[in-house]
Amino acid sequence: MTQTVWIARHGNRIDFVNPEWFNTAERRYDPYLSPDGLVQAKQLARRLVGEGITQIFSSPFLRTVQTAEAIAKTLDLPIKLDWGLGEWLNPEWMKESPEILPMETLMAQFPLIDSTYPMGTSNYPETWEECLMRTKEVVQRLVAAYPDDNLLLIGHGASVIGTAMGLIPTLRETDIHASLCCLVKLVHQQGEWMMELNGDTSHLSETEEDIRFN
Fold it and tell me: What pTM was estimated for this model as a whole?
């Protein structure tokens, strides 16, 4: 029996479109999707129809939850939030632990969130090596816990790279194309994981020329 893990990055974010947003934002490390990012999320959702996905896991940051919601609505699936898929908590990017919306607020805005799933906690700050270890551990935990399911993991540039490397250790960081709203497809066959898609953006009408992480 084969298992498939799809890994997606969130769509374009408001502070990439309007850098001034950061200066007055209430939660400056938790930007929401820009208008074109919302379009990208819907295009990603249409791309995943018919792919047999049975479980959706998302980082709890607003931009990833918004991306997950578009897909969850289309596929009629719940969303499980997991801090293991969260952004790299890099102290050079974030001067303090990032504030996200409380679970009660997220659930009110996004009713497809599964309230019974344990989200875990963040661990700010973290090094790049710690981020890679965290994302490796979460993907290995999820494929072991849901061996009969095809999973979709929605995260950030760092977590796309880390989860892919977590299943295929021979990959290097630079091997993985983690652009906005991209798709990585990993398939488990005959005891090993293989990459069938690497940062695919063919479903998007507009793509970024330079890959940005923060």
Answer: 0.97
d(CA 190, CA 141): 20
pLDDT value at 184 more than 90: yes
Judging by beta carbons within 10 Å of its beta carbon (0-12, 13-18, 19+), is residue 1 exposed, middle or buried? exposed
Extract the tokens encoding 20: 């001034």
12-70 pLDDT tens trace: 999 999 999 999 999 999 999 999 999 999 999 999 999 999 999 999 999 999 999 99
Secondary structure in 3-state letters for the chain: CCEEEEEEECCCEHHHHCCCHHHHCCCCCCCCECHHHHHHHHHHHHHCCCCCCCEEEECCCHHHHHHHHHHHHHHCCCEEECHHHCCCCCCCCCCCCCCCCCHHHHHHHCCCECCCCCCCCCCCCCCHHHHHHHHHHHHHHHHHHCCCCCEEEEECHHHHHHHHHHHCCCCCHHHCCCCCCCEEEEEEECCEEEEEEEEECCCCCCCCCCCCCC
On average, the pLDDT of the chain sits at 96
- Strands of 192-200's sheet in order across: 79-81, 55-58, 151-155, 3-9, 183-189, 192-200
Distance between CA 165 and CA 204 in Å, rounded?
24
